[in-house]
């Protein structure tokens, strides 16, 4: 059986036996009025929220590889702005983590793997010649604390983020759930 088939088969059980009931929340708004931007690492699926005593329905979660905010008007920033203005989030958490796959990533190895999976060198060359620096675009970060602080700074200074929204920076250890404070957003509130 293929993975998707087994997942859909389980879903029939999930619905038939009302397993969804234990995940229901009051509404679509985060009960603790917070949005978290974190990494898509599988170890953080539940750990990122549970380590901060956040349950289903407490928080909106936005994820990408490495919790890296690459563009001030990209999809991650748009999601954070929507969470603040439309989904009642009053605070933002940026959570990076130790042992992240995006730390010190070898972009040449990624491009080599792309070619091994069928992306032609000519395609990579066309993208380079068109002005896309693939190495920069695929690059992660060198230091997780600096990466989190950079994201917090970009969000805090964004012209569409209200001045009264604290933006916190945290780094979690995926081995034990310990969270370290990198930036206390309450200290950076703008008037």
Automatic annotation (TrEMBL):
Which InterPro entries does this one have? Answer: Carbonic_anhydrase, Carbonic_anhydrase_sf
Lineage: superkingdom: Bacteria
Q: Which CDD domains match?
A: beta_CA_cladeD
Coiled coil spans: none
Q: For this protein, what does the record note about how its cofactor is bound?
A: Binds 1 zinc ion per subunit.
Segments passing through the bilayer: none
Keyword Aminoacyl-tRNA synthetase on entry: no
What this protein needs as a cofactor is: Zn(2+)
Reaction(s) catalyzed by this protein? hydrogencarbonate + H(+) = CO2 + H2O
Q: Name one Pfam family in it.
A: Pro_CA
Residues annotated as binding Zn(2+) = 39, 41, 97, 100
**EC numbers, comma separated:** 4.2.1.1
Gene Ontology MF, one? carbonate dehydratase activity
What's the family? Answer: Belongs to the beta-class carbonic anhydrase family.
- PANTHER family in UniProt: CARBON DISULFIDE HYDROLASE (PTHR43175:SF3), CARBONIC ANHYDRASE (PTHR43175)
What is the protein name stated in its UniProt record? Answer: carbonic anhydrase
């Amino acid at each position: 059986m293929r993975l998707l088939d087994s997942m859909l088969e389980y879903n029939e059980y999930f619905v038939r036996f009302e397993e969804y009931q234990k995940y229901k929340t009051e509404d679509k708004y985060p009960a603790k009025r917070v949005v978290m931007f974190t990494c898509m690492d599988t170890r953080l699926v539940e750990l990122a929220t549970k380590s901060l005593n956040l349950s289903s329905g407490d928080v909106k979660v936005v994820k990408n590889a490495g919790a890296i905010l690459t563009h001030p008007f990209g999809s991650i920033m748009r999601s954070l702005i929507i969470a603040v203005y439309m989904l009642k989030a009053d605070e933002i958490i940026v959570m990076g983590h130790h042992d992240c796959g995006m730390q010190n990533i070898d972009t040449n190895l990624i491009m080599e793997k792309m070619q091994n999976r069928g992306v032609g060198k000519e395609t990579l060359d066309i993208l380079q010649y068109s002005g896309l620096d693939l190495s920069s675009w695929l690059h992660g970060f060198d230091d997780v604390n600096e990466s989190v602080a950079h994201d917090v700074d970009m969000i805090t200074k964004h012209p569409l983020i209200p001045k009264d929204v604290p933006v916190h920076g945290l780094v979690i250890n995926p081995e034990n759930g310990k969270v370290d404070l990198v930036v206390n957003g309450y200290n950076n509130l703008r008037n």
